[in-house]
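Extended Data, panel c. Modelled sequence:
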Amino acid sequence: MEELGPEPHELFESTEHYAHKAEHGSHDEGNIEECVHDQRIGEHNAQAEQLEEGGRTHQSAVNSTSETKSTSEFKSKDKRAGAELKSKHFATKCAITASILAVFAAISSLLAGHYANEAVLKQTEASDKWAYYQAKSTKAHVYEGDLFVLQALNGTKDAKDKAQKDAIMESMNQIQDKMEQYQEEKDDIQRSAESLENSSHKDMSEHEDFALAVSCFQIGIVLASVSILIHGRKLYLGSVAAGLIGLVCLVLGVVT
């Protein structure tokens, strides 16, 4: 039998089927495009959120670094300020110590010069006393020689006249009185000269104490001055020790 083409109703059903399928196909394509668009928007939003989060993290790190740097700078400035304050306080303390030592050194120097002058003057006066003592001794020896002569004349045969003997005896008595007077004067002069010598030695000893005090105070001033320049606390303690030794010498010179 000869094959025939599709029936008209079959053609109509096939056309409707393809039309329905094409309609559904176009609808699916629209959904796919919409999904792709939504996915791209989501990815864009995610990237934006990641960038924003990264920006916030970077800003937080920058702020933290800035705060850390500020804190470090503040601490460094605080340490420098504290060190400068301590340095100024130490320098002020050294300067005050040097000033006090300079005052004591000036006082000790004046006292040392005074007692040195007194020692020299008293020693000179004592020398004058000893010269006066020597003069009295010379005169006493002269009178002693005259007494020997009179005693010799009194014992000779030529001195038989009573008036002559009386004159000799009177002269001898006068000479003896003079000799006794000279002896008393010599004793007074000797005691005065010895007292002046002892006083001169004492003044010289006090001068040495004050001179030693001046030396100690000067050493203390030098050490205090150097400690200001190099900030040496050991040198400052050395200046204080030297000042204390000088003060002890000063007190000993005044008391003794």
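Helices lie at 8-154, 162-230, 233-255. This feature is highlighted in the accompanying rendering.
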